[in-house]
Amino acid sequence: MVSLFLEHIRYEKRLSHHTLTAYRIDIDQFQDYLKSQYELEKPETATFHQIRSWIVSLVESGLDKTSVNRKIATLRSFFGFMLRRKVIETDPMLKVSALKTSKKIPVFVEEKPMETLLDDVDFPDDFKGLRDKLVLELLYGTGIRLAELVGLKMADVNLYEKTITVLGKRNKHRIIPVPPPLFALIQQYQQTKESEFEGKADPVYLILSDQGVKAYPVLIQRIVKRYLGLVTTLEKKSPHVLRHTYATHLLNRGADLNAIKDLLGHSSLAATQIYTHTTIDKLKKAYNQAHPKAG
Q1: Which of 84, 197, 267, 272 lies most in the core, judged by the most C-beta atoms within 10 Å?
Q2: Does the annotation mark 275 as catalytic?
Q3: How far apart are alpha carbons 153 and 202 in whole angstroms?
Q4: 235 found inside a domain
């Protein structure tokens, strides 16, 4: 039944390869626990108490609450599937609740350092320099995820409409507007790429490695870490920080929260509301500095 469930989420739910791998690992770990502790071969026959026992063991092992909650969500999907298929009569996950976690305020780069990075830092005027700047401009200028950037294809760039089409989570497409200067950079990069590799570079994907093939995640992470290190002392310097920065700067400048939700590809507004915390902090600071009654 496990293989049937994994086939279901792969083809019907259309989840990403990364998510599918996480589901498989979660189910395998749950299965191993049931075998070792209860000599139970079929995870679909597990009871509420056995599930709860596994969750307790995860917490006691020191696994962070976010990871535990992801495993709980995996089991919720698994047993929900079993119930719909009438393999089980009652859902043992009904009495299982997610662990309470503290909300983390997104880490982001302030506007001034981003201006310095993109306007004042000298990027080499060759393929690598233009590629690195394009990576930073796309991540900050569109808010796309690391996987979305790596998977961005030449055909996804609409030079006429000044947009890019991004394939996001659950294989959902979204269209994101891109400022004209960024398109000028894309065109300059394209020309340099053709000259660098003499037409032998990968013709499908936009961002390429030094060898002219599709870029890989670690390369993008290195680029971001190296250049953010020039303008910020933030401990975390990752592509996702630039995604947070994009959303925070939009919100600080008055963008509608629903519009930001759509641009980021969030399925619900709840995921986007984390950015309001940074905006509220900014408003409180302005109030405390300027209002005569702030005390």
Answers
A1: 272
A2: yes
A3: 10
A4: yes
Considering the entire predicted model, what is its pTM? 0.72
Task: Determine which one of 65, 70, 145, 153 is catalytic.
Answer: 145
CATH number of the domain that residue 149 is part of:
1.10.443.10
C-beta neighbour count of 105 within 10 angstroms:
13
145 a catalytic residue: yes
Token pair of 271, please? 């995921």
Residue 25 lies in a domain: yes
Q: CA 99 to CA 92: how far, in whole Å?
A: 17
Active site includes 169?
yes
Confidence of residue 287 (pLDDT cuts 50, 70, 90): low
Point out the catalytic residue in the list 8, 128, 169, 277.
Answer: 169
Q: How confident is the model over 130-153, as pLDDT tens digits?
A: 999 999 999 999 999 999 999 999
Closest Cα partner for 105 from 287, 291, 282?
A: 282
**Helix, strand, or coil here: 148?**
helix
Tokens of 262: 């759509």
To the query of whether residue 18 is one of the catalytic residues in this protein, the response is no
Helices 239-252 and 257-264 cross at an angle (nearest 10°) of: 160
Please tell me the total count of domains within the chain: 2
